[in-house]
């Protein structure tokens, strides 16, 4: 091998940073990395790889997870390069399952903000809420996603400009925690 660094070498500084950022134990991170690389030897997951991997981590049926996995991909892909590397995955997964409500909502915001312009409009919210209905097995007839989004906006769009900034979104859901049941796919 000479001076070449082996392909699966785990840089100590990367590992230390992950321990700091996620609060996970070293052994847990190493185990996750093994699993991640087994699912994706190149270490960079595209949407298809990610869907396969993500659904194996969820309890819901494949069909239900399918649509939401697409949005989760967008939220986890922090640098928006269309691939999820191990750091993005681990931080995303650890924070959305073990983080505080506020930390989770930061990811939820990214999940809704499709065009990444740092605000959520009604259209962006309707797409995800529809997928959330499917994930939760909630019928759309009685209370259509469009109406649900109207109600969410009238509740948390405090300056009434038809878009939600990150602060409006996070503070609004923190003030009305029951909203997270329908808004966030990262509840237990
Ligand atoms: Ca990325
Ligand atoms: Ca947006
Ligand atoms: Ca607003």
Outline the secondary-structure elements.
Elements: H1 12-22, H2 26-39, E1 44-45, H3 47-55, H4 62-76, E2 84-85, H5 86-98, H6 101-112, E3 119-121, H7 122-136, H8 145-156, E4 163-165, H9 166-175, H10 180-183
Helix pairs in contact: 1-5, 3-4, 4-6, 4-7, 5-6, 6-9, 7-8
The structure holds calcium ion (3 copies).
InterPro entries: EF-hand-dom_pair, EF_Hand_1_Ca_BS, EF_hand_dom, Recoverin
Organism: Rotaria magnacalcarata
Protein name: EF-hand domain-containing protein
Essential attributes:
188 residues; mainly alpha; Recoverin, domain 1; 2 domains; two-stranded antiparallel ribbon; two-stranded antiparallel sheet; binds calcium ion; calcium
Task: Tell me the structural class.
Answer: mainly alpha
Look at the structure and name the CATH superfamily of the largest domain: EF-hand
For the terminal residues, how far apart are their CA atoms? 46 Å
Bound molecules: calcium ion
SSE topology string: HHEHHEHHEHHEHH
- What's the helix count? 10
Count of DSSP strands: 4
Uncertain stretches of 5 or more adjacent residues: none
**Number of structurally distinct domains:** 2
CATH class of the largest domain: Mainly Alpha
The average pLDDT value, as a whole number, equals: 92
Question: What portion of residues belong to β-strands?
Answer: 5-15%
| Strand line-up across the major sheet | 1-2
Shape: globular
CATH architecture of the largest domain: Orthogonal Bundle
What is the CATH topology descriptor of the largest domain? Recoverin, domain 1
The rounded Rg comes to 18 Å
| Biggest pleated sheet | 2 strands, antiparallel
Fraction of residues in helix: 55-70%
Protein name: EF-hand domain-containing protein
InterPro entries: EF-hand-dom_pair (IPR011992), EF_Hand_1_Ca_BS (IPR018247), EF_hand_dom (IPR002048), Recoverin (IPR028846)
Pfam family, one: EF-hand_7
GO molecular function: calcium ion binding
């Amino acid at each position: 091998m000479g001076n070449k660094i082996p392909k699966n070498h785990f840089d100590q500084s990367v590992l230390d940073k992950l321990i700091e950022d996620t609060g996970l134990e070293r052994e847990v991170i190493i185990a996750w990395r093994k699993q991640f690389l087994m699912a994706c030897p190149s270490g960079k997951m595209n949407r298809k790889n990610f869907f396969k991997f993500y659904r194996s981590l969820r309890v819901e049926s494949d069909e239900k997870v399918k649509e939401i996995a697409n949005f989760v991909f967008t939220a986890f892909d922090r640098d928006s390069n269309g691939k999820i590397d191990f750091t993005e995955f681990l931080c995303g997964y650890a924070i959305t399952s073990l983080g505080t409500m506020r930390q989770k909502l930061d990811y939820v915001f990214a999940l809704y903000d499709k065009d990444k312009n740092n605000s959520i409009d009604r259209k962006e919210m309707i797409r995800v809420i529809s997928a959330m209905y499917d994930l939760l097995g909630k019928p759309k007839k009685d209370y259509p996603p469009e109406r649900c989004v109207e109600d969410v906006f009238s509740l948390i769009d405090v300056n009434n400009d038809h878009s939600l900034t990150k602060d409006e979104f996070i503070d609004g859901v923190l003030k009305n925690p029951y909203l997270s049941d329908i808004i966030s796919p990262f509840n237990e």
